[in-house]
């Protein structure tokens, strides 16, 4: 989850070519791919699959190019209701296309069989500009070496839900708080805003959400899973980030207000498993779904310690073109560089600050555009705890997403690039370099 912890820096370089892996098919789940990666040895951060990024406006030509290859079976996100792709249902396909964001996922063996790998030569005539390895993705703050330990954490969460185990050192559950607002909302001037997010669709792509959380009863929530597990959040990360971005204005009892856009329409995309992990394609499938549903704001508190990924850059640009803005966590491996997808030029990257508006030492640096409250953040958590306090750039990101929804409510013209510009121009300047905090602390309208 997005708690602060030490992490070992990893070079953002492309992995060495690996032999085709027949298990790296488009319908494989994250755990299956990760176990296969461990058996392969070498770079365990790559899944063995590939992502083809089409040139802007050339998606249709790219699909035809794939279909023209003898024996290549191509699935399409539009074959699924609302483009909520279930990769497990694409068994038998060699590739699956995400048309809204101009990206296709290629199975490892099929890609190698057709010469579609990172080592291929791309010509000016090709409808795509790159083929790149697919990476694993983690809830921001999760060390890849802890990946499989997440399975144990999931089991513990289930046990706690059943009343079989007391809460330990995972989610820091808290007791009833005094009424008022969290320090983060106060710092962002949310209470003073006359806006509530009404009419704005906000997508949170994370570990899912506790759909039975009592403080969200009656809220309009649209949900889809992209990881082969129910949307119900057994991890906690997604429930926490959703709460900050879209939580209630007045929780029952003497509980602080912790949500920003409390009347927004919530779109929950489960792109990370209950162990807090996933793949790049699952994240891209979530973005494709959110863009297809024209969510004005897309919040992503996840990442991987890699260089800029063409597929994310394409997805970010497609989102902006459609009037959607992606905001993503810079990462918790500071003072290391901003992680993917936040390091893409078309995606807004978010750093974290503490209650004294000091840069959080764990917050990544480099390509940073704005900051949000990210230390000791109180928000919602899965039952039975209901609330938790966490730290990380994951916690800063939904503050920005929620404020973005409030700004979007002020004018129909504030969408995409214009919304991004308004967030930056209205930020509160901080006494730190731009590569650490960006334009400053996000502010509500």
List the helices and strands and how they pair.
Elements: H1 30-40, E1 46-54, H2 59-68, E2 74-76, E3 95-98, E4 103-106, H3 108-113, E5 128-139, H4 149-161, H5 183-187, E6 201-206, E7 221-225, H6 237-246, E8 265-270, E9 277-279, H7 280-292, E10 297-300, E11 302-303, H8 310-321, E12 325-329, E13 348-353, E14 370-373, E15 377-380, E16 387-390, H9 393-410, H10 417-425, H11 434-437
Parallel strand pairs: 2-3, 6-8, 6-10, 7-8, 10-12, 12-13, 13-14
Antiparallel strand pairs: 1-4, 1-5, 3-4, 5-9, 5-11, 15-16
Helix pairs in contact: 6-9, 7-8, 9-10
Task: Describe what this molecule looks like in 3D.
The chain has 445 residues and is of the alpha/beta class. It folds into 2 domains: 30-136, no CATH class; 144-437, Peptidase S8/S53 domain (Rossmann fold). It contains 11 helices and 16 strands. It has helices at 30-40, 59-68, 108-113, 149-161, 183-187, 237-246, 280-292, 310-321, 393-410, 417-425, 434-437; strands spanning 46-54, 74-76, 95-98, 103-106, 128-139, 201-206, 221-225, 265-270, 277-279, 297-300, 302-303, 325-329, 348-353, 370-373, 377-380, 387-390. The strands form 3 sheets. Strands 1, 2, 3, 4, 5, 9 and 11 form a 7-stranded mixed β-sheet that branches. Helix 6 (237-246) runs parallel beside helix 9, helix 7 (280-292) packs parallel to helix 8 and helix 9 (393-410) crosses helix 10 (417-425). The protein is globular, with a radius of gyration of 20 Å. The protein starts with 29 loop residues before the first helix and ends in an 8-residue tail after the last helix.
